[in-house]
Amino acid sequence: MPSKPYDYCIIGAGIIGLTIAYELSQRHPKARLIIVDKAAGAAQHQSGRNSGVIHAGVYYTPGSLKATLCRKGVPAIIDFCTRHQVAFEQCGKLIVAVDTEEASRLDGLYDRAQKNGIEAKRISAAQMAEIEPNIKGVGAILSPSTGIVDYAGICHKLVELLTAQGATFQFSNTVTGLQETSDQVIIKTEQGHIQAAQLIVCGGLQADRLADMMGLANDFRIIPFRGEYFRLAKKHNAIVNHLIYPVPKPGLPFLGVHLTKMVGGYTTVGPNAVLSLGREDYQRSFFEPVDTWRTVSYAGFWKLMNRFKLAGLSELKRSLSKSAYIKEVHRYCTEISVDDLEPYRTGIRAQAVDPQGNMIDDFLIKKTARSLHVCNAPSPAATSSFAIAAHLFETGRL
Ligand SMILES: Cc1cc2nc3c(=O)[nH]c(=O)nc-3n(C[C@H](O)[C@H](O)[C@H](O)COP(=O)(O)OP(=O)(O)OC[C@H]3O[C@@H](n4cnc5c(N)ncnc54)[C@H](O)[C@@H]3O)c2cc1C
After folding, report:
1. Whose CA is closest to atom 35 on ligand 1?
2. How confident is the model at residue 312, as a pLDDT?
3. Residue 343, preceding bond cis, omega within 30 degrees?
4. Both 156 and 31 in a single domain?
5. What is the DSSP string of 173-197?
6. What is this structure's pTM?
7. The predicted structure's pLDDT at residue 254
8. 6, 109, 235, 284 — which has fewest CB within 10 A?
9. Do 190 and 175 share a structural domain?
10. What is the pLDDT of residue 76?
C-alpha cells in the first residue's frame, strides 16, 4: 500500500472520468489524484467508439439532466477544443422526415427544441434539396449548432494535461473490489490496493458491477447494445454538408442510423442498436458466458425484450445483412449502395435498465459518504461531459 493515501481515486479513463479529473484538478490543484483503468490507454471503450457528434440537445426531456447538461456541455466542449487545438466543426444537422407521419413527429421534436432553448429551424423539402441535394424527404429540422469532434482526441489531451499537473495514471489495472470505511475507500486492484479519501467511479459498460461492489446496483443493470458503423467509400466523403439523422422511433432512446461527417474528412453511416452478448465484444464472438449470464439472469432484461421484440428483431436482421442495413439509409439517401459500405469500428452502448424493464433515460448518479458512482451515462454524455463534471461540484456532490 502507498504510504500516503490519495485524496481522490477515479476509476475509468473514458471521457466522464477524465473530465471529472480535469475539473477536480482546476478546483483543487494540490489534491493527490490517481486514475485507474483496466484498458491499456484512455478512451478504449465508449468514448473512443462513438459517432463523434456534439449534440445540440434537441431530443431530451425538458428539465432532465440530459437536456440541461447537454445544452451547457456544447459551449464547454468548444471552449476546451479551441484552447487545446482539438479538431471540431459545427457543421449542423438535419433531422429528416420521409413521410407525413414522420413529419408530424417533427412537430413534437421542434417543440422540444424550443422548450430546451435550442436553436432549430423547420425547413421544407425544397429548402432541403437546396442545401442537401443527395437527401430526400418531405421536410426537416435544421439544428445549426450540432457539430462533430474527436472525443478520443479530447481524452488524450486531458491525460496529457492531467499528467503535467501531477496526476497519477494506472492503465492495464482492473479494479476487483471496493471497501468503504469511515475515513477512506480501499480500492482493490490486480496490482495491489489503493487508498483514497474519495472515490469517483465512471466505469461505463461495467458501471453496475462496480456499483455492486458497494451494494449500489439493486435497482439497475447495464444492458449492452452494439452499434455497428460503416465507413463510406472515399467518393462519398462529401456526400452531405450536414449530419443527416432520421426521425427517432417512438419509445426508443437510440437515434437511428445516421450519416455522419467525421473530423477526419470522411463520412460514416450507423449505428444500429443490437443487443450484445458481450459488453466489450467488439469482434462479435457471440460467446461471452459471464456477460451473457449477467444479462439473461436479470428479470428487467426479459421485460425489456418483451416490449421491444419486434424492434429488436429488425435490428438483428439489419446487423446480419448489409442489404437490410442499406434499406434503412435508402429511406433518406439513395446515392449509397451496399458496395460503398466499408468496415468501420463498432461501439457498444452501456444502457442502464431498471427491474421493470425500463431503459433509464436520464443520467443516473449515486453517492455514499466517500464515493460517487456515475451509473448511467448514455448519449449525449460525451457532449455533456464537461458540464456533468462542473455540475457534480456545483451541486455539492463532490
Ligand atoms: C455507438 C455509440 C455512439 C455514441 N455516440 C455519441 C455521440 O455522438 N455523442 C455523444 O455525446 N455521445 C455518444 N455516445 C455516448 C458516449 O460515447 C458515452 O456516453 C461516453 O463515452 C461515456 O463515457 P464513460 O467515460 O462513462 O464510459 P467509457 O468511455 O466506456 O469509459 C469507462 C472506462 O471504465 C473502465 N473500467 C470499467 N471497469 C473497470 C474496472 N473494473 N477497473 C478499471 N477500469 C474499469 C473501462 O476500461 C473504460 O475505459 C455514443 C456511445 C456509443 C457506444
Report:
1. 12
2. 84
3. no
4. yes
5. --EEEEEE-SS-EEEEETTEEEEEE
6. 0.97
7. 83
8. 235
9. yes
10. 98
